[in-house]
Amino acid sequence: MESTGSWQEKFSAMVGSAIDQARKGRSDQWISDQSAMLGHPISRTAVSEYRRGKRKSIPVTDLIVLARALEVPPVSLLFPGLPNRLVPAMPPGKTSSDAYSSDSEVPAFDALRWFTGESQVVPSGWDIGFDPDTGDVAITKVNFDYMTRPGFSDPARMAPSTEFDLLEACRAFATSCARLHALSYDFMALSESERSERLKLLDQAAKDIEITKKWVRELGGDLSEHEIGPDDCGDD
């Protein structure tokens, strides 16, 4: 079995290659300067070592700042080569609740979906087939879960979770809010008859927002609204 140390090295090298690709020829010093402007300085040496995969780990804070400096989504630095490149998403092995060991290398898009919560199912990775007559390995192929499996929980691998349900509720809430905004955008430019029809759609969109907000609250979501007044703003 692959050691944890070996997995860390592979993961760091993968992130480093993604940083190197995203920088598009810009220097390590340029990236370091950008990080300082963002209020979280990362030295030129550190940037160089991250990029070349020379460090075994990278703090999440540094990863976020590097992504901001390079103007890419942070997750694109974690799992490059979308959708099908095999990436070392996790160390091989299993937890006490797993029925069998997970594979370290899985398709990048499967890893991304699991990481972001779009899928609750741990990527299945390689599928080993056996000859029914001899019991020998007959064929080994990679499973692309995003093509064949839904993102919902597979009872054989993982029980449903409140965290997964909350992510689904937040997505539904965001979709409802976006729909209300889109329906409101050109309302004043519509004719009187068109406005009448649009009002019906707006009413339904508002109801959908309340339904999804209730769903989020029931799952323990935080729907706090934040405002600041002029007195709360600094001179900057």
Give descriptors for this structure.
236 residues; two-stranded antiparallel ribbon
Structure, described:
With 236 residues, the chain is mostly helical. It has 3 domains: 7-78, 434 Repressor (Amino-terminal Domain) (Orthogonal Bundle), CATH 1.10.260; 86-110 and 118-157, no CATH class; 162-219. Helices cover 50% and strands 7% of the residues. The protein has helices at residues 4-23, 28-37, 44-51, 60-70, 74-78, 108-116, 145-148, 162-185, 192-218; strands at 86-88, 105-107, 126-130, 137-142. A two-stranded antiparallel sheet has the order 1-2. It is extended, with a radius of gyration of 23 Å. It starts with a helix and ends in an 18-residue tail after the last helix. The model has no long low-confidence stretch (mean pLDDT 85).
- Counting DSSP E segments of at least 2 residues, the number of strands comes to 4
CATH H-level superfamily title of the largest domain: lambda repressor-like DNA-binding domains
The CATH class of the largest domain is: Mainly Alpha
**Biggest β-sheet: count, sense, barrel?**
2 strands, antiparallel
Radius of gyration in whole Å, from Cα? 23 Å
Q: Give start-end ranges of low-pLDDT stretches.
A: none
Architecture (CATH level 2) name of the largest domain: Orthogonal Bundle
List the quaternary state of the chains: single chain
Helix content: 40-55%
When the domains are counted, the total is 3
